[in-house]
Design goal:
By secondary structure, this protein is of the alpha/beta class. It has helices spanning about 15-25, 50-55, 75-90, 100-110, 120-135, 135-145, 145-150, 160-170, 175-185, 200-215, 220-225, 235-240, 245-250, 255-280, 295-310; strands spanning about 5-10, 30-35, 60, 95-100, 190-195, 285-290.
């Protein structure tokens, strides 16, 4: 069975974390988390971290490594994840990377697209245009200069729209054309890719059930405690799904019931975005999971699949 470097991906709540744990226990592997929010300490319930028992039983990398007040970028992930992978390789340790943060997966597989540095003058001008003329106008401009990027970037994603236009202003080239070099690149570490896939209706049921359990497990209290800490939450941590909605509830902007429903909705939208991203990755060995399929059966099917992969 080939698990020297295995990467398990899937949309949120697909069951990939449990599968990675079960497989690591049987193979003696260590796990590298590919998740932009599990890096934050004390953000446990809303990020669906592995239970404390699992963290104590197995070696996990890139979980609980920064404070919620600190920024964390794809560049930080790339450096830490590649270092961890190389250390495990030097020890001949089987490695299982698992997660659903598509941008981080892309970085791990194809390298990091750095692009030109930031230009605050250009960014300031673009932000001002968004404020006076509307973000839709910027997205329309992006359609003109880089239709590929415009199709991929949500019209409400101001940060990525501004970055794409900034790159075009600085280089005269569409950001999508600069990124294509990574799409065509070979994997840096020869990962074997396994994808877990469920019917969309089943995925939605699992997402809704997970959110309900998060609320019951004390998500509101977790957010309350984070908000009382001396250092404020970083913008990235504050806008995380599950946390942003509960913060609005605690600020009396919405009810707990509406906040809970919004977490479900936003998580389903995240899953939709993940599915779109995963279509751009090559050589994924997809495993279609039945609604009532047990973890034991999924594990056996994965082991059978891996035994057939050269």
């Amino acid at each position: 069975m080939n698990t020297s470097r295995l990467l398990i991906l899937g949309v949120t709540a697909s069951g990939k974390g449990r599968l990675a744990f079960d497989l690591a226990r049987q193979t003696g592997a260590e796990i590298i988390s590919i998740d932009s929010m599990k890096v934050y300490r004390r953000m446990d319930i809303g990020t669906a971290k592995p239970p404390k028992e699992a963290l104590a039983m197995l070696k996990y990398h890139l979980i609980d490594i920064v404070e919620p007040s600190e920024p964390f970028s794809v560049g930080s992930f790339f450096e830490l994840a590649t270092d961890a992978a190389e250390q495990l390789k030097s020890r001949n340790k089987p490695t299982i990377a698992v997660g659903g943060t598509a941008l981080y997966i892309k970085a791990l597989l194809y390298g990091l697209f750095e692009g030109p540095g930031a230009d605050e003058q250009i960014r300031s001008q673009l932000r001002q245009t968004a404020k006076t003329e509307g973000l839709q106008q910027l997205h329309h401009r992006l359609k003109t200069v880089d239709p590929t990027a415009a199709e991929r970037i949500d019209p409400s994603d101001s940060r990525r729209i501004i970055r794409a236009l900034e790159v075009y202003e600085l280089t005269g080239k569409p950001i999508s054309s600069l990124q294509r070099q990574f799409d065509a690149a070979q994997s840096l570490h020869n990962w074997t890719l396994i994808g877990l896939r469920r019917e969309k209706t089943e995925e939605s049921k699992r997402i809704n059930s997970r959110v309900k359990k998060m609320i019951a497990a004390g998500l509101v209290d977790e957010v309350k405690k984070l908000l009382t800490e001396n250092e404020p939450l970083s913008p990235q941590a504050r806008c995380a799904i599950g946390y942003a909605e509960i913060i609005n509830y605690l600020n009396n902007i919405t009810s707990l019931e509406k906040a809970t429903e919004l977490i479900k909705k936003n998580t389903r939208q995240l899953a939709k975005s993940q599915r779109t991203w995963f279509k751009t990755f090559k050589n994924i060995n997809w495993l279609d999971i039945e609604p009532e399929e047990s973890n034991k059966k999924i594990l056996e099917r994965i082991k059978t699949l891996l035994s057939k992969i050269k």
